[in-house]
Amino acid sequence: MSNAATLDHYAVLGNPVAHSQSPFIHAEFARATGQAMDYTRVLCALDGFAQAVRGFADAGGKGCNVTVPFKFQALELADRATPRARLAQAANVLRFDADGWLADNTDGIGLVHDLQANAGCVLAGRRVLLIGAGGAAAGVLSPLIEAAPAELRVVNRAPDKAAALAQRHAALAREHGVALSAGGLDEAGAGHDLVLNASASSLAGAGVPVPATVLKAGALAVDLMYGAPARPFLLWAAAHGAVGRDGLGMLVEQAADAFLLWRGIRPATAGVLQRLRARLDAPGAAP
Description:
Elements: E1 8-14, H1 22-33, E2 37-43, H2 49-58, E3 61-66, H3 71-77, E4 80-81, H4 83-88, E5 93-97, E6 100-104, H5 107-118, E7 127-131, H6 135-146, E8 151-156, H7 159-168, H8 170-175, E9 179-184, E10 192-197, H9 201-204, E11 215-223, H10 231-239, E12 243-245, H11 248-263, H12 270-281
Parallel strand pairs: 1-2, 1-3, 4-6, 7-8, 7-10, 8-9, 10-11, 11-12
Antiparallel strand pairs: 3-5, 5-6
């Protein structure tokens, strides 16, 4: 690896950010692909995100990941945005180009990669339930639609938010032949092949916000969180005959697509996911 003076600099910006596994993931990617780069964490004041990201770019940073609660602000700072970031109205990746900043959202394509490549879940023709209508749900919806499930229902505690999110994606759903609908949590329906929890319930330590009837026998139930926050959802899934999966694979896959945006190469992910899971499962690891 080149010395520090010749490294390209990247970071994850958020609040909180100390828990982020992104430095480990991107160090693994850089080592595997021979890229001369480093990657750090930047804690931003809640009212100081724009100043922090501009300061990082002015100091020579080439790009950054953005985590909560700044994904909406990240999109507003960019000169250009990918279609999926515009639909999500949020960005988790910025690339600092000479002709202006580019915003992208790799959360959804990362989720789809994890489901299809790592979990062996074929999305085409399936019935999918997406719980939540906030930033996490918005970030994953367009790539889910592009994977062409037969039906995709969005439910949320505030039905109007679910309806607005679905309406924003209506044209994309028509283009891909997806029956996209929305409603409240009490309108989640039953017998879905795939149930995705993108709500804040896990982070808040609340119960699963939908009844077990949403699950088809043997369904895949995925919480976009990982570690301790995801465990109650995974236990609920197992107790009702579903296969539970956390969001760790999505985390690694979305990072690989950010790496692709920055470096022009998409690194292999299977080994990194295995090592990351072992790292988090080790005695004394942070939750």
